[in-house]
Design brief:
The complex is a heterodimer of chains A (171) and B (539).
Chain A: H1 2-13, E1 21-22, E2 27-30, E3 35-37, E4 47-52, H2 57-73, E5 80-85, H3 92-102, E6 107-110, H4 115-119, E7 127-131, E8 136-142, H5 150-170
Parallel strand pairs in A: 4-5, 5-6
Antiparallel strand pairs in A: 1-8, 2-3, 2-6, 4-7, 7-8
Chain B: H1 2-17, E1 22-23, E2 30-43, E3 57-69, E4 72-81, H2 90-95, E5 106-112, E6 116-123, E7 137-138, E8 143-144, E9 147-156, E10 160-171, E11 174-175, E12 179-188, H3 189-193, E13 198-210, E14 230-242, E15 245-257, E16 267-280, E17 283-293, E18 336-349, E19 357-369, E20 382-394, E21 399-410, E22 421-433, E23 438-448, E24 455-465, E25 469-480, E26 489-499, E27 502-511, E28 514-518, E29 521-525, E30 528-538
Antiparallel strand pairs in B: 1-2, 2-3, 2-30, 3-4, 4-5, 5-6, 6-9, 7-8, 9-10, 10-11, 10-12, 12-13, 13-14, 14-15, 15-16, 16-17, 17-18, 18-19, 19-20, 20-21, 21-22, 22-23, 23-24, 24-25, 25-26, 26-27, 27-30, 28-29
The chains are: A alpha+beta (171), B mainly beta (539).
Chain lengths: 171, 539
């Protein structure tokens, strides 16, 4: 057992100098029951992906906070927000109704058997990611405290800035 | 215990430094993963009737590592218990196993192409609404019923999707002695006939389970009516969406089977499910109805525990985030129940200030016994009823308030006796943001009841310092009424620290005995007092 723990620790310590994870190839349902490959949303602009459920109060707080500030944020950077519900059959119908009534200016997807959640190694919700134009994950955080959504915008602005700089250099 | 705590701290330190995945060169693929650790130091508490478990320590730990290279991916997961936390049924399985601290590792190899995929290893999947098959993992419950085997999927444009799988299901730390397989087909009639205004789908599934009937003579499966080692289940579904309206339906047929490990007689089963949704601007409506008739399906006829389930039969009721509203959750009666629930949402936003809005929500759910034989009276008895609403008001950028009321009625005898307990639950929740980083949230709750344990009162205070710190304290006290109740006090205080993908939470408190429910599965959690350390991280 001790040896196993040591192996795990070594494996983790070895991962200290790391680069970006990429978005897995998973298909999810949208609010109209149509399947969408999550990777098909990558390409034109950075993405903020937020995992949430109807039974996760901080998740809803985070999405509401993002939605309230979205109009201001979009004056600073061009990006999309994807809200991925991990509600299973028990609450998936409620999640769809809730998301529609909230009128979130986001792409809402439904991960009823938590395939994407598992593939992206999300242990707890809320868990949010910032994904670059090539599908690489450049930032993520777990949990939510009011105000921590600002870090997502900061990363997206940084990404947009880098993209703009790269475009200028190419010219 | 000291060694385990050191390990947990080392895991945290190591994972905190792991800010993203390991890139193995340009074409070498990449590694990613996650760590989750939940440890409790149990203390003897004279105020509780349950003694602390032997060793005064429990720890559930999960390490998952994934490798991805283009269309290929593979992964490993280790579940380590040092030992299992009190109340987790896997602890009973591990006690009789060769390896008492580690479950059989999970692994997979997957090739995902544009239109097809092949996977070998431990499979998580769901057919339809999960009424005949859902394999999933829920660490809160210590539940994992993945199937170790082979799965193949194929999509023909948008017209058709098919998947087949076969293998042996996991039963807690090891694999059950049974084999399961099945196929799922979805045909998009809407795309075939060119119906562009919405979607129209016709779907069907088949699942079987094979297990010998003579492994244990004392189980007497044949004497209880099992006539074949092969169990067949099939379902048909019709789903459509058009202009904000959604309809889903499913009917299930199940062959002769023992619905629970203790069932005295094998019976045929059936289930029906319907879901209706409608939305228009900021108004939305959703309703689900379901009938279950002997639908409990065991992974193994010789196994025990709530994790011994091949299908998924969740309680279709409201799941609350408030302590007192969740004291007595509804538990599904798979041998026979019918009922449903409905939700209505409406949001009103100020046109001049987007930080000012109202959210209205109402929900109703009710369930009854299905068979007359389920009750002593021979009549259909009410199992559950919940009438509730909540109103959320965002007053300004800083202040948000929520009030909630719930009228709950539940039958403690699963319908056998004509007796229900009624609770009226009131909640007020206030959140105030001092500035961009500091915020305070306060909850006050009261449960009013002349039955069972009488009245309860609860409160929670939470102070957040974004983006890293959160400190909280809560208390739940049973006031009782007219000689009823325990007068026990349940307190809890703790803090959490979050750094990007890593979160550590340390708390201390006295926890009430009760059912921990997640989805449709409920696990009995004995009461305990102690320190709890929870760590999650991913890389």
């Amino acid at each position: 057992m001790k040896r196993l723990f040591l192996m795990l620790i070594c494996a983790l310590m070895a991962s200290a100098s790391l680069s970006a994870q990429t978005l897995p190839d998973i298909r999810l349902e949208n609010g109209d029951s149509k399947e969408i490959a999550i990777r098909s949303l990558v390409g034109t602009k950075p993405l903020i992906i937020c995992f949430w459920s109807t039974t996760c109060k901080p998740c809803i707080q985070e999405l509401a906070a993002i939605n309230d500030q979205l109009a201001d944020w979009r004056t600073e950077a061009d990006f999309d927000v994807i809200a991925v519900s991990v509600d299973d059959v028990r609450t998936s119908a409620r999640a769809k109704a809730f998301a529609k009534a909230q009128g979130w200016d986001m792409i809402c997807l439904f991960d009823a058997n938590q395939q994407l959640k598992r593939a992206m190694n999300v242990s707890l919700t809320p868990h949010s990611f910032v994904v670059g134009k090539t599908g690489n994950i450049v930032y993520s955080h777990t949990g939510y405290t009011p105000g921590s959504e600002q870090a997502l915008l900061d990363k997206v602005i940084k990404l947009s800035g880098t993209a703009a700089k790269t475009a200028k250099t190419k010219r | 215990m000291k060694r385990h705590l050191l390990c947990a701290i080392a895991l945290f330190v190591a994972s905190a430094t792991a800010t993203a995945q390991i890139q193995l060169g340009e074409k070498g693929g990449s590694l990613s993963g996650s760590i989750e650790s939940n440890s409790i130091i149990y203390l003897n508490d004279k105020g509780l009737s349950t003694p602390a478990p032997e060793g005064y320590f429990g720890s559930n730990n999960y390490l998952k590592v994934d490798y991805t290279n283009g269309r290929f991916s593979a992964g490993l997961q280790f579940d380590i218990y040092s030992p299992a936390l009190q109340g987790y049924e896997i602890g009973e399985y591990l006690a009789g196993a060769k390896f008492k601290r580690i479950a059989y590792p999970m692994k997979y190899f997957k090739w995902q192409d544009k239109n097809y995929s092949v996977m070998l290893g431990d499979i998580f999947d769901q057919f339809g609404n999960g009424l005949i098959l859902r394999t999933f993992e829920d660490r809160q419950l210590g539940f994992n019923n993945s199937i170790e085997g082979l799965r193949a999927t194929y999509n023909f444009n948008r017209y058709l999707a098919i998947k087949v799988l076969y293998g042996r299901p996991r039963l807690y730390n090891t694999y059950a002695g049974s084999w399961s397989g099945g196929a799922d087909l979805s045909v998009s009639l809407g795309d075939i006939i060119g119906f562009k205004q919405g979607g129209l789908y016709l779907e069907a599934s088949y699942v079987n389970r094979y297990e010998g009937l003579y492994k244990q003579a004392d189980a007497d499966l044949v004497g209880r009516g099992m006539t074949s080692p092969l169990l067949n289940m099939a379902s048909g579904r019709l789903n459509f969406d058009i202009a904000g309206l959604t309809f889903r339906s499913e009917y299930v047929y199940k062959g002769k089977d023992l619905s629970t490990a203790a069932a005295s007689e094998a019976k045929r089963g059936q289930a029906a499910y319907a879901e209706l949704g409608y939305s228009y601007k900021r108004f939305s409506f959703s309703a689900t109805a379901r009938m279950l008739d002997n639908m409990g399906t065991l992974i193994s006829l010789y196994g025990t525990g709530t994790g011994n389930a091949l299908n998924y039969l969740p309680a279709l009721t409201r799941q609350y985030t408030y302590m007192l509203a969740n004291l007595n959750p509804y538990q599904v009666n798979a041998e026979g129940e019918f009922g449903g629930q409905a939700d209505v949402y409406y949001t009103y936003r100020s046109k001049s200030d987007r930080y000012r809005y109202w959210n209205f929500h109402a929900n109703y759910s009710t369930y009854y016994t299905l068979h007359k034989a389920q009750s002593k009276s021979g009549q259909r008895e009410r199992l559950w009823q919940d009438i509730n609403f909540d109103i959320e008001r965002q007053w300004s950028k800083r202040l948000k308030t929520t009030i909630l009321y719930s009228f709950q009625e539940w039958n403690p005898y699963h319908g056998y006796h004509h007796r229900t307990y009624v609770s009226n639950i009131f909640v007020a929740d206030v959140q105030y943001k001092f500035d961009r980083k500091k915020s305070l949230r306060v909850e006050a709750q009261y449960l009013l009841s002349g039955e069972y344990e009488g009245d309860w009162v609860a409160a929670l205070v939470e102070f957040n310092l974004a983006p890293h710190w959160s400190i909280y304290a809560s208390d739940m006290y049973n006031i009782g009424r007219d000689g009823l109740g325990t007068k026990k006090n349940y307190y809890n205080a703790g803090f959490s620290y979050t750094y990007n993908r890593t979160r550590i939470q340390l708390s201390y408190g006295r926890n009430r005995a009760g059912y921990i429910c997640s989805g449709g599965v409920c696990r009995y959690q004995p009461e305990y007092t102690g320190f709890n350390l929870a760590i999650t991280s991913s890389f």
